[in-house]
Task: inverse folding
């Protein structure tokens, strides 16, 4: 699975959970930039990501995930890319 | 020594001058000495607690940093959290648990062998305990490195502006500021003084005046009719906001004069249009603390239940917050009510947003106004359980509100007039800050004369109608 496919799948999850498309996907995108991405939706998104890619995050990893780039790298590592 | 005491007005300028005269390298030390002087002045024995918590936190955070073994790191964190929570549990809950078991056994005609121990809760214990726990978890999560200088850790835990009632600060914001002191700066000192002035106004004029009326009603609730009890219920949030909000502004202002930036604690809470927004504006340093160290780990643990996991986390977080306020059924009820409010909003959030979009309501003044009123009334209602009274008192208050009515209790008419002058000024200030942040400026006006006139007016109001005989801060007891 390459980076583009990961991004595509993430985009689907974000639209599903947040119910809008008013964000631009890039490595620097962080929760604060996206309307509706708050402490409620954050864990819903995390849960969907884990399900979609069949991976499990550790709590410590979540804390270190500061933007979308970090998330994509972490997913890539978990998928042994 | 509290911020509203005469002693503090002598203590603080001396501290500020000595602080800036000290060479930069040792400024943290002058603050540490001032902080211990401040705390010891309240009760010397309390200082043993802050020393103990500082030592334990210093040692365990170093141990966490010095090992690579994940299990050991976790154990060190857990041991330190338990160690520093022990005094809080002991002082806060021993008597309450003891006396409830006592009453329970007595109702079965049994005697409880332990006598009740007279204990005073060390002032500020929850605040520095929370700060020490936050620091420990941050080091464990590798958000921050363990501090090498024991004095800086001790200062973080005992820093006098924050020790009595917060704002609950974080190590990653304070430790670097303690290490590198700033030079005296006109802008920071003047904005610090303005914050202090408004803080004193909120505390002495609004909180303590409203407090006189609200206490007179609630402490004699049997004798008052439902209409009066309803008025007092609706006034009480203003008292709490002006009390803790005013205290926090003084703390933030004092820190600013020393060149240290401290996070804000309240952001015009009564203009929130929903309970979830309210809790992002009310006692923010506590709520973000609870979010980071309680709510988020819980939602992570129960994330497979999706939105219901969030409901579980909200309920647990607010029930714990209720118990933190006090080990009583009324406080637990308070937590349950907040949890229910927020869960309901979480579950209906999407429908609400869709409804608002469809009818284009977000900018309609009438809709915003109704939501602000509903949010305020919901909060005021829940606070009847959050006043520290017995469950039966809270229930009687509600019963009377719904079943009796009559003339509104006035008491001393001057108290009521002063109270409304205070509330009106506070409301106008928050209203203009919220909706017209660049207009109607007084403290920040470009014209020097307007500025000087507004400072003078507030000082005169404080001296004329402030309660200057040393009322207590509600939040010290937590």
Result:
């Amino acid at each position: 699975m390459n980076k583009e496919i990961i991004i595509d799948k993430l985009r689907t999850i974000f639209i599903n959970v947040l119910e809008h498309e008013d964000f631009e996907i890039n490595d620097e995108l962080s929760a604060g930039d996206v309307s509706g991405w708050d402490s409620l939706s954050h864990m819903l998104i995390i849960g969907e990501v884990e399900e979609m890619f069949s991976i499990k995050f550790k709590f410590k990893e979540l804390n270190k995930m500061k933007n979308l780039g970090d998330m994509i790298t972490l997913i890539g590592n978990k998928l042994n890319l | 020594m509290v911020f509203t005491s005469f002693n503090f007005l002598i203590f603080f300028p001396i501290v500020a001058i000595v602080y800036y005269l000290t060479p930069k390298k040792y400024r943290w030390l002058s603050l540490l000495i001032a902080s211990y002087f401040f705390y010891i002045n309240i009760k010397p024995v309390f200082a043993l607690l802050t020393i103990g918590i500082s030592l334990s936190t210093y040692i365990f955070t170093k141990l966490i940093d010095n090992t690579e073994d994940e299990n050991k790191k976790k154990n060190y964190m857990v041991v330190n959290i338990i160690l520093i929570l022990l005094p809080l549990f002991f002082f806060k809950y021993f008597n309450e648990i003891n006396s409830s078991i006592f009453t329970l056994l007595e109702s079965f005609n049994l005697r409880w062998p332990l006598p009740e121990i007279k204990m005073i809760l060390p002032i500020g214990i929850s605040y520095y305990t929370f700060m020490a726990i936050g620091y420990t978890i941050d080091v464990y999560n590798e958000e921050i490195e363990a501090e090498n200088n024991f004095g800086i850790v001790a200062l973080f835990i005992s820093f006098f502006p924050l020790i009595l009632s917060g704002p609950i600060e974080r190590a990653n914001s304070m430790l670097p500021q303690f290490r590198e002191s700033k030079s005296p700066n006109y802008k920071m000192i003047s904005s610090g003084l303005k914050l202090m002035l408004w803080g004193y106004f909120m505390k002495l004029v609004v909180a303590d005046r409203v407090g006189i009326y609200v206490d007179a009603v609630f402490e004699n609730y049997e004798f008052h009719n439902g209409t009066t009890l309803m008025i007092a219920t609706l006034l009480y949030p203003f008292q709490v906001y002006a009390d803790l909000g005013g205290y926090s502004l003084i703390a933030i202002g004092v820190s600013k004069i020393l060149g240290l930036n401290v996070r804000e604690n309240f952001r015009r809470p009564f203009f929130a249009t929903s309970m979830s927004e309210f809790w992002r504006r009310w006692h923010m340093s506590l709520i973000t603390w609870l979010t980071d160290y309680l709510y988020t780990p819980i939602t992570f643990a129960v994330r497979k239940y999706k939105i219901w996991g969030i409901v579980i986390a909200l309920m647990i977080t607010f029930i714990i917050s209720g118990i933190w306020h006090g080990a009583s059924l009324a406080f637990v009820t308070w937590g349950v009510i907040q949890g229910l409010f927020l869960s309901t909003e979480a579950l209906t959030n999407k429908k609400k947003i869709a409804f608002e979009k469809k009818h284009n309501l977000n900018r309609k003044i009438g809709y915003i106004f109704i939501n602000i009123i509903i949010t305020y009334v919901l909060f005021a209602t829940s606070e009847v359980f959050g006043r520290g009274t017995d469950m039966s008192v809270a229930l009687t208050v509600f019963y009377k509100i719904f079943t009796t009515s009559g003339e509104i209790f006035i008491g001393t008419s001057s108290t009521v007039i002063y109270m409304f002058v205070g509330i009106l000024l506070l409301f106008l200030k928050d209203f203009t800050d919220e909706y017209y942040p660049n207009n109607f400026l007084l403290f920040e006006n470009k014209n020097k004369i307007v500025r000087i006139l507004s400072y003078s007016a507030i000082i005169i109001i404080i001296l004329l109608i402030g309660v200057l005989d040393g009322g207590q801060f509600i939040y010290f007891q937590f």
